[in-house]
C-alpha cells in the first residue's frame, strides 16, 4: 500500500515539476553560488567544454 501511495505522490510531484520547470530553473539560476557550481560542473564534461570553446574562438 505504501508503494502505491509513494508512486502516486511521485507522479503528482513529477507533473508539477514538469509543468513549472522553466520558472524553477530561473529561480535556481538566480542564486549565484548554485549558478557558479552549475557552470563549473558542466565545464568539467569534456564534450561540452570542447564544444563551447570551439564556438567561442571561431
Automatic annotation (TrEMBL):
It comes from Parageobacillus thermoglucosidasius. The lineage of its organism: Bacteria, Bacillati, Bacillota, Bacilli, Bacillales. This is Sodium:proton antiporter.
Amino acid at each position: 500500500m505504501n508503494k502505491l501511495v509513494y508512486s502516486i505522490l511521485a507522479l503528482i510531484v513529477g507533473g508539477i515539476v514538469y509543468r513549472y520547470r522553466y520558472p524553477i530553473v530561473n529561480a535556481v539560476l538566480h542564486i549565484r553560488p548554485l549558478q557558479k557550481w552549475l557552470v563549473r560542473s558542466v565545464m568539467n564534461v569534456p564534450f561540452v567544454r570542447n564544444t563551447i570553446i570551439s564556438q567561442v574562438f571561431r
